[in-house]
Amino acid sequence: MKLRKVTAAAAAAVVLSLTATACGGDNDKNDSGSGSGGGDKIKIGIKYDQPGLGLKEPDGSFSGFDVDVATYVAKELGYKPDQIEFVETKSADRENALARGDVKFIAATYSINDERKQKVDFAGPYLLAHQDLLVKADSDISQGTDLNGKKLCSVTGSTSAQNVKDTIAPKANLRQYGGYSECLAGLQSGAVDALTTDDSILAGFAAQDKYEGQFKLAGLKLSNENYGVGVKKGDKETADKINAALEKMVSDGAWQKAVDDNFGPASYKNEPAPKIGAIVK
Ligand code: GLU
């Protein structure tokens, strides 16, 4: 898998912050970012355990489609890569992280829906994914209804877990963990029969060398997941700037490059770039 390394940028960030401290400068403000760029840092929420979308590598660098979207958006807001501090925002933590001001924005497979819109605002959408199932290569589970009575894993605070309870398989024995990597360990050991979340995420897991030949996607489109960039409720200024950045990312070809770089290795067949504000129900 081709992974973009930002180690040099991270090293440069350390040097910059040391310089600021030594000079008694106040550039390295300990907040989520002013949005004005310049000498400030910006904190951005991503996932750390989703290969192809948001992944923290063993060497401390970050890779994935969401990382590339976040880096592009930050550039349009006036921040260079070495001014970005990525922060892990797990599925159940996202609304609180924005409300507390821990991060300026979140790009973390974050589906736009009405419930979340009560608590946060969204720019986008910038990707349309669909809920699907990941099962062992020899599994006979092929439909959502096959999950009733089966041990199914998903993540607390995700739309995937909610959809299972509401419609897909209310009688499934649903286990909810903090992150998808924990579900994957359960699938490998046989502790669970299936893992459900977005096909974009599942494709990234299935394509990892260490799982070669072990898992398959059912190929179902159990829901529409419109990924948005989350911002603090009421921060219209940032949301508007992010929408402009996302439009530019599509029109200048950077969106397609990020797709090819990050989804190509997993052979994930994504939907075309969505239009800003066009939510597929
Ligand atoms: N996109 C879905 C959601 O926002 C599932 C993936 C995730 O948990 O981030 O809940």
UniProtKB/TrEMBL annotation:
Residues 1-22 form the signal peptide. Belongs to the bacterial solute-binding protein 3 family. Keywords: Signal, Transport. The keyword Ribosomal protein does not apply. Residues 41-266 form the Solute-binding protein family 3/N-terminal domain. This is Glutamate-binding protein. The keyword 4Fe-4S does not apply. PROSITE patterns: PROKAR_LIPOPROTEIN (PS51257), SBP_BACTERIAL_3 (PS01039).
